[in-house]
Design goal:
Layout: E1 2-5, E2 8-11, H1 19-25, E3 33-37, E4 40-42, E5 57-62
Parallel strand pairs: 1-5
Antiparallel strand pairs: 1-2, 3-4, 3-5
InterPro entries: Beta-grasp_dom_sf (IPR012675), Mopterin_synth/thiamin_S_b (IPR016155), Thi_S (IPR010035), ThiS/MoaD-like (IPR003749)
Organism: Paenibacillus kyungheensis
Protein name: Sulfur carrier protein ThiS
Length: 67
């Protein structure tokens, strides 16, 4: 399945068909992230319930600590 993630085309296996599964595949599952799916910002609780489809557009922002 082809998704647009942070402005780049990315091909992912169909088994990563929810936002939660996609984040796990990107090693972001346990990090604090903000996800925008087709121009809608998602709450973390929604991630397991949002099914991804071909050509969906996602923006994923994760935070990096520092000082």
């Amino acid at each position: 399945m082809e998704l647009i993630i942070n402005g780049h085309r990315k091909y992912v296996e169909p088994e990563y068909n929810t936002v939660s599964k996609l984040l796990e595949s990107l090693s972001l599952g346990h990090k604090t992230v903000i996800v925008e799916h087709n121009q809608q910002i998602l709450q973390k609780e929604e991630h397991p319930h949002i099914t991804l489809a071909e050509k969906d557009i996602l923006e994923i922002v994760h935070f990096v600590g520092g000082g």
